[in-house]
Design a protein that fits this description.
The protein has 255 residues and is α+β, with helices and mostly antiparallel strands. It contains five helices and 13 strands.
């Protein structure tokens, strides 16, 4: 009887142990949503530095950025002088680019969302965030891995049917406690790894904690672009009139 009682106790403990392990596994969709909310917020305005690194050259730009949820975004270059005033505006599914040298406003079709933004390794889609990983993909948690010195949950994201996305698959590594994305891999529809974004230098801006340094690498070309958040303000009211074509063409004020 004592042996049976001990066996039953051991079985119940093992069962409880397994249950705890299962409960500790993150819900991948909830984690993706938290990570997306961290980087986007209800609103965002900030100053970023972009460094485009090539084997024989490097150039820098300073950028002002405003976003409101996943529906509105505006980015504008303030330096260097030769690029000053160039910017992009997205409202809903419409994306526009303004070229101040020729005073032209160009509508960019959805087919060019994967086009390089200003010769960098980031695309138009990356800069104006037209897609949502939470909304447009399914999510599968596959385990924990060490990435950039951080224990992160690996999640595979596959496009939902008819979703307006440009990638065949995404793999994401998210630090679960703070919901910070530390790595993201971008695949073509044929399954080829095209790009890898690594996040580091984790910082808090108000109630939002993000990787303030993001390095995007294009695998085949072996080229890299780094974006660093110099200043960031979340969840504040954004002035009326920011997300329109007049502001895109005329304003270069600091956020």
């Amino acid at each position: 009887m004592r042996w049976l009682a001990a066996a039953a106790l051991l079985f119940s403990l093992n069962g409880a142990h397994a249950a705890v392990g299962k409960i500790s596994d993150p819900n991948p969709s909830q984690l993706i949503k938290r990570a997306e909310d961290q980087i986007l917020g209800k609103t965002f305005r900030g100053k970023l530095q972009m460094k485009i690194q090539r084997p024989d050259s490097e150039r820098e730009m300073e950028i002002l950025s405003w976003t409101e949820g996943t529906g509105k975004a505006l980015v504008k270059i303030t330096a260097p002088a030769k690029d000053q005033g160039t910017g992009n505006l997205r409202t809903g599914l419409d994306l526009w680019q303004y070229l101040p040298k020729v005073e032209r406003l160009i509508k960019i079709p959805p087919s060019l969302m994967l086009q390089s933004w200003m010769g960098s390794d980031f695309t138009n889609d990356d800069l104006v965030r037209s897609s949502s990983t939470f909304r447009d993909y399914t999510h599968e948690f596959v385990g924990f891995e060490q990435v950039n010195g951080v224990k992160a949950a690996k999640i595979i994201c596959r496009p939902k049917p008819n979703a307006p996305v440009v990638w065949g698959k995404l793999e994401m590594w998210i630090e679960p406690k703070r919901a910070v994305t530390v790595q993201q891999d971008f695949y073509s529809e044929s399954g080829e790894l095209l790009k890898r974004m690594s996040g580091s230098n984790i910082k808090s801006f108000g109630s939002h904690t993000i990787a303030s340094r993001m390095e995007m690498k294009t695998i085949k070309k072996n080229t890299t672009t780094v974006i660093e958040y110099l200043d960031a303000h979340y969840d504040e009211n954004i002035e009326d009139g920011v997300f329109n074509q007049n502001f895109l063409k005329n304003s270069i004020s600091q956020p």
